[in-house]
C-alpha cells in the first residue's frame, strides 16, 4: 500500500516519532526524518534505517517553530521525492506552570510547535496530495487533546486545537483520497519519561517498578506504558487501504486514561 511512498515525520529523531518512522519504513515507505540532535548521531540513525528496511532516508533539520522553515522542508521533500504522501505531525514541546505564572514566551513556543506547525505542514503538503488524490495526514495529539491536567494550559490548548484542526481538514478532504486523523497517546515510555521515573524513585526511595506504578497510577489505569511500537502499528493501519474511510478520528491509545 505505501511501498515507495514518502513519509515525512516531524520530531522523528527519537521517541514516538522514531517509532512511527520505523513502522512506516517497515511497510516500505521512504522517509524524511526531522528533529534536533547531534548531527553525527542523526546521520548514523538515517543510515541504519536505510540499511535495515531497504528504503531511502533523508533528514531535514527544519525548526518547527518557523513557518518558512516548515515550508522549505516540504518543498525540498517534494523536489527530491515528488510529493509528501504521508505527513506525520509529531514534533512537540511541553512546559508546566500555573496559568497565571505561565511565561508568555513559553506559551507562544508551545502553541507554535504543537499547533501552528501542524497547520503549516498540512497547508504546504496538501496540494500535492490532492493532485495525486492520495495522502495520509496523521497528527499526534495526546490524551490532553481530550482531557486536561493542571499546570499544562498551553499544551492542553494546543492539543485540543490539533483535534479541531484534524476534523476540519478531514471534512475539507472528505471526497478525496486524502485522509486526516489523530492519535492520542497517554503515557509513553520515552527517555524523558524514564528520567522522571528515575528521579521519582530516588526522591521517594522507591524501586523503579514502584516509581513507575506511582507515576502511571495518577492517570493510566492499565499501569502500563504505551509503547512506540504500538503507536507505530496504529499509524501503519491509518495509512492502509483498510483505513480509507477513517476520517477526522481521534484514536486514543492511553491505557484507559480517557475512559475514566
Describe the structure.
The structure is a single chain. With 260 residues, the chain is an alpha/beta fold. The chain has 2 domains: 6-186 and 227-259, Rossmann fold (3-Layer(aba) Sandwich); 189-225, no CATH class. Helices cover 48% and strands 13% of the residues. The radius of gyration is 18 Å and the shape is globular. The mean pLDDT is 97.
Helix content: 40-55%
Structural class per helix/strand content? alpha/beta
| Shape descriptor | globular
Give the number of helices.
Answer: 8
Low-confidence stretches: none
Specify the CATH class of the largest domain: Alpha Beta
Observed structural traits:
Rossmann fold, 260 residues, 8 helices, globular, 48% helix, 2 domains, 7-stranded parallel beta sheet, single chain, 13% strand, 7 strands, alpha/beta
